[in-house]
Amino acid sequence: MLDRVVAKAGEYPDEYFDDETNAALEKIPSLTSRMDSSGHLELSKESIMAEEPDLIIGQSETVNPETTIETALVQEPGFCGEVKNASFDDVYDHIDLYGTLFAKEDEAQKIKDEVAADLEKIGSDAGKGKTVAVLYPGIEGASTYAYGKDSMR
Questions:
Q1: Is the same domain home to 59 and 16?
Q2: For 98-115, how does the pLDDT look when each residue is reduced to its tens digit (9 = 90+)?
Q3: What is the 3-state secondary structure (H, E, C) of 41-82?
Q4: Span 19-77, pLDDT tens digits
Q5: Would you say residue 153 lies in a domain?
Q6: Which of 64, 67, 106, 140 is most buried, with most CB under 10 Å away?
């Protein structure tokens, strides 16, 4: 699907992806990696619209449904605080969303099956009784805050 992406914004650390994905990401033009003091990308509507996208994934103060009415905009549900009582069903829903957006439903089902098989191998007791907190450091003097279990904000 990355061959259909016309632009990206932000950082994509090599260690997050396999070599094939990193090579594909390297070919996609980057609009910016500049962030504001709260850690959000500084991105203009004009820079995005100049790429003539069919679809925009994500939003900001300047790039949102009101400012990009000529192009479909999908708000990434994991960043909206809409996920409550998070589970792997939410992961499967995300896979379905992107499978539908890119007309790759069969590939999405294959990925879901692979994830389910991996989870089966791990077992249901992995991490049982443990909790995790993710601390998000602010930049340029912004406040530090923690991600909660239902939020990716």
A1: yes
A2: 899 889 999 999 999 999
A3: ECCCHHHHHCCCCCEEECCCCCCCCCCCCCCEEECCHHHCCC
A4: 999 999 999 999 998 887 767 788 888 998 899 888 888 888 888 888 888 888 887 77
A5: no
A6: 67
**The pair of three-digit structure tokens given for residue 145, joined into one six-digit string:** 């805050």
Average pLDDT value for the chain: 83
Look at residue 35 and tell me if it is in a domain. yes
- Six-digit token string for 45: 């509507």
Domain that holds residue 35: 1-75
Q: Any idea which residue has 């443990």 for tokens?
A: 130
**Tens of pLDDT along 20-32?**
999 999 999 999 9
CA distance 89 to 69: 31
d(CA 43, CA 63): 8
Same domain (yes/no): 67, 89? no
pTM above 0.70, yes or no: no
**Domain limit, last residue, from 24, 46, 75:** 75
